Amino acid sequence: MPINHTHQIDILKDILSNHQLDCCGTVAECEQLERLIQSLLVNPNIEQSVKDVLTDVYTYSQTGKYTQQLENHITSHQNQLSNWISDIDQLS
């Protein structure tokens, strides 16, 4: 059974929150972010302002997936993670 966009956003926020709180993550989480965002970007029910944030998060996950030092990548994006979580909360 496919999950709806509300559940997808909740999962996205959970992963971002974990990255922010734990300052670590996995390549699999970056790949999951990418899949969620790809699905959300083509969803007509998602506002453009949310899509703008999702595009930034997608770039973060792409870069994170290919970096040799994922923890450093996450740590260097702490401010953005906080902002993205807040923005998604307000806009969703």
Explain what this protein looks like in three dimensions.
This protein has one domain (5-91). The two termini are 22 Å apart. The model has no long low-confidence stretch (mean pLDDT 93). The protein has helices spanning 5-22, 27-41, 48-66, 70-76, 78-91. The chain is mainly α and 92 residues long. It is globular.
What is the percent of helical residues?
Answer: over 70%
Q: Quaternary state, please? A: single chain
Order of helices and strands: HHHHH
The profile of the biggest β sheet is:
none
Features:
92 residues, 0% strand, mainly alpha
What topology does this entry show?
Blueprint: H1 5-22, H2 27-41, H3 48-66, H4 70-76, H5 78-91
Brief overview:
With 92 residues, the protein is mainly alpha-helical. It is 79% helix and 0% strand.
